[in-house]
Amino acid sequence: MIIVATLGFEEKFALRALVRREIKKGDKMVVLLPAKGDPKGESAFFRLKEVKEKAFPDLEIERVEVDVRDFCGAVCFLRNILKELSLKDRIVLNVSGGQRILILELLAAASSLKLKNAEIEIETEDSSFYSTVPLEIMFPTELDALDVELLRTVAEGSGMKLKDLTEMFDIPKATLWRKLSRLVEMRLLEKKNDKYYLSDLGRSRL
What we know:
- This protein has about 210 residues and is of the alpha/beta class.
- It has 8 helices and 8 strands, in the order βαβαβαβαββαααββα.
- The strands form 2 sheets. It has a 6-stranded mixed sheet with strand order 3-2-1-4-5-6, with helices on both faces.
- Helix 3 (about 70-85) packs across helix 4 (about 100-115).
- It is elongated and about 65 Å long.
- The chain starts with a strand and ends with a helix.
- The relative contact order is 0.12.
């Protein structure tokens, strides 16, 4: 696992991203900081490294400075980093801390690559809860009217079989099966024990 974290003036968000996971040998954290940033950010990184050495000795940590003032250049720079990292392991983009412009540059870079093995993790400012979603939630989705109707129908049921849907839609069974298979491949539907269920990603498209 590779955690890519945007770091601000406090290290708490990056640390909690580590605590929430079972860190093992080979895992890595890439910490993004604005180039020529505020000294408070430098202090936060120093404290993060101190805790890492004591609590997560097997974790590799790498610091990367990003010129946030050049938006397109930063996106290009981050794209190259993410492209290389994605070949090695699953990526978690922790965007709970750090400058908003750096967060947007990171999300723009990741979305443009359409990484399938990446997820976004974000925590509220008051730390009351956090959310983890697949990066695909940022991708555009091409759905026709029948796709949307299928998603809505499955959402209203508690698990629907192909037979059930065939009876509800006046289209050939083979066509319906292809439609459902495509929606499963897009991770908008999940198939368990021959039943179709709406995924969280699918729920975001309704």
